[in-house]
Amino acid sequence: MIPQIEKLLNEQITYEATASAQYLSMASWADIRGYNGVADFFYTQAEEERVHMTKLVKFINERSGTAVIPAIDKPRDDFNSLMELFEIFLESEEFVTAKINNIIYECLQHKDYNVHNFMQWYVAEQLEEEATARTLLDKLKIIGDDKSGHYLFDRDINTFQATNQPK
Ligand code: OFO
Fold it and tell me: What atom in ligand 1 is closest to the CA of residue 12?
């Protein structure tokens, strides 16, 4: 495996692990406050990011690289509102998308079409996750501070979970 690409893939492991831990922390915050729908949504997102991470670990090792399992920082665990959870969700997904796009760019520079092909699954996944994050944030902006709106949002959120299950 081309060393520069291996390095980028290993960095991506860190980003996926960081997102997974952040979403688990957000799920827990929502769970404690009685937002069970939002909690389930982020528990599932946390699992998905973990699968994304493992997929990278296996891929690097299968191509005779060495996957490095990173230490990650403690995720944020104090949030001001439901809206803030979804702002962080969207920011996190946009960040991950930018990193994936950079790997694709570097693959083309190094003519690594194998990794380029592998990364297409992540591109499709990110499109879906960003769209979900934007939709949910837009709904929360409409709801504003309305408590009954928050109740309905929490009740119905899982109809919006991204359908593209990790493989
Ligand atoms: Fe949505 O972050 Fe993984 O790829």
Answer: 4
Nearest to 97, CA basis, from 70, 125, 59, 68: 125
Q: How many whole angstroms from 126 Cα to the centroid of ligand 1?
A: 6
- 26: three-class secondary structure by DSSP: helix
Q: What digits encode the pLDDT tens for the residues 50-78?
A: 999 999 999 999 999 999 999 999 999 99
Whole-structure pTM value: 0.93
Alpha helices in the chain, H assignment, sequence order:
3-32, 36-62, 82-109, 113-143, 147-156
Which amino acid does the sequence have at 92? S
Q: From CA 143, how far away is CA 77, in angstroms rounded?
A: 24
Distance CA 43, CA 128 (A): 17
- Report which DSSP code applies to 145: T
Q: Cα separation of 58 and 115, whole Å?
A: 13
Distances (CA, A) of 52 to 29, 30, 36, 143: 23, 23, 24, 32
